[in-house]
Write a structure and sequence with these properties.
alpha/beta, three-stranded antiparallel β-sheet, Conserved hypothetical protein from pyrococcus furiosus pfu- 392566-001, ParB domain
């Protein structure tokens, strides 16, 4: 059995390896911190040696808890943390070890699994997304890997646009990936920008009509071209007009910094003029 070493917190770098966990539950983190304070650290973190100190492999939440406890203590009790020293063959092996440990302990979300593959590809750790998925998740089936690849396409297209995307299910990410593949990315981003939604659920509710329209057209073997029929217009700088299909007709969303009441009144009057008696 490996013997833990007590390593100073300041010697551990958490940035060398991209983390696959992006959503930290505050309540769960408080519970972990309280448990460590009362019972000590039951499972050491894992690190590997670098030229300047140590790089964290696994135990990010445990390290965060120790850092918080250290900031509250006056006696230096939490200045060091028990750690197992690993010797991965390379950075790719260290990443695989981190993900394997988190898969067992934390069950990362589909978004988190896909995102780490994107990050490690973008930073050059892996040459391609497929290589990243194969190395990081060697045990999963080909079908499961295809679903992860679909989720990764959503990460690529919408990272930074979604609120708490870690809460999206695998099925939701696959549905989103399908319409992004159709070229509806601009429509999706415009839809997300129409209102300052507060939660992941709010955003999904806003996106659902767009997704359902695309899915209906696919099922009916109709054109899925985002511009036929036309769904989005930007007539002047600072104004977007998006058409949305409903059960009873259509909704026009007029948004943007210049979408004021006077503009909307003008649009309504122009529609009346066009549709009125000749």
């Amino acid at each position: 059995m490996d013997t833990p070493q007590n390593i100073p917190l300041n010697d551990i770098d958490v940035t060398i390896l991209p983390r696959d966990r992006t959503l930290i539950c505050a309540e769960a983190q408080t519970e972990l911190q309280s448990s460590i304070a009362q019972n000590g650290l039951r499972l050491p973190i894992e690190v590997y040696k670098t030229d300047t100190g140590f790089a964290l492999i696994s135990g990010y939440r445990r390290l965060l808890a120790f850092q918080s406890l250290h900031s509250l203590a006056d006696n230096g009790q939490y200045a060091k943390i028990p750690a197992i020293l690993r010797k991965p063959a390379d950075k790719q092996a260290a990443l695989a070890a981190m993900i394997e440990e988190n898969e067992i302990r934390q069950n990362p979300s589909p978004w988190e699994r896909a995102r780490i593959a994107i990050v490690t590809t973008d930073t050059g750790v892996f040459a391609t997304l497929d290589a990243a998925l194969a190395a990081l998740y060697p045990q999963i089936s080909r079908q499961k890997r295809a679903k992860l690849r679909a989720a990764a396409e959503v990460v690529e297209g919408l990272d930074g646009q979604l609120i708490d995307p870690e809460l999206l299910s695998e099925n939701q990410l696959i549905r989103l990936s399908q319409i992004l593949r159709l070229g509806w990315t601009e429509i999706v981003i415009t839809t997300l920008g129409e209102c300052r939604d507060k939660t992941c659920a709010d955003q999904w509710h806003r996106l659902l009509p767009v997704i359902q329209e695309a899915e209906t057209r696919i099922s009916e073997n109709r054109s899925t071209n985002p511009n036929y029929p036309r769904r989005l217009s930007r007539p002047i700088n600072g104004v977007s007009i998006r058409r949305e299909k409903t059960r009873n007709g259509y909704i026009l969303h007029i948004t943007g910094r210049r979408a004021n009441g006077m503009l909307v009144t003008t649009v309504l009057e122009e529609i009346e003029r066009m549709m009125g008696p000749a």
